[in-house]
Amino acid sequence: MKKLGAPAASLYALCWAGLILIIPANKFEWMLDEPSASAEGLTFCGLPIDDGIDLRSGYLFLLIPFLATGITKSIRQKRIHYTLWIFFMLLAIWGWRFFIHYPIC
Question: Would 96 be classed as within a structural domain?
């Protein structure tokens, strides 16, 4: 069972990294891909306001299993566990996606 821990955690992290990067932050982002919209000069800041669910907190909440597992195993082993490193990597991707790459209008 111990041998499945690292591959399972890595696969879980890969799936979440893909979801963080693929799922749009605004439900109207599909409009940016329309040829007529790009011809009219539509930008991300010109999209209708999305009053739906805030994805920033939702994705951050789903990273908690890595944080909890990483802290627990790091305390037991007295060194930083790989799940904590995976958490930091996913947190960096999350921060890049929702704060650096996300335009401020």
Answer: yes
The pTM of this model reads: 0.72
Q: Which residue has the tokens 């996913």?
A: 90
Tell me the C-alpha distance between 41 and 37, whole Å: 6
CA–CA separation, 29 vs 31, rounded Å? 5
Task: Specify the number of domains making up the chain.
Answer: 1
CA-to-CA distance for 43 and 64, rounded, in angstroms? 34
Question: pLDDT tens digits, residue range 29-74?
Answer: 777 777 777 677 777 677 777 666 667 777 778 888 888 888 998 8
**Domain range enclosing 80:** 53-105
User: How far apart are the C-alpha atoms of 39 and 42, rounded to whole Å?
Assistant: 8
In a domain, 72, yes or no: yes
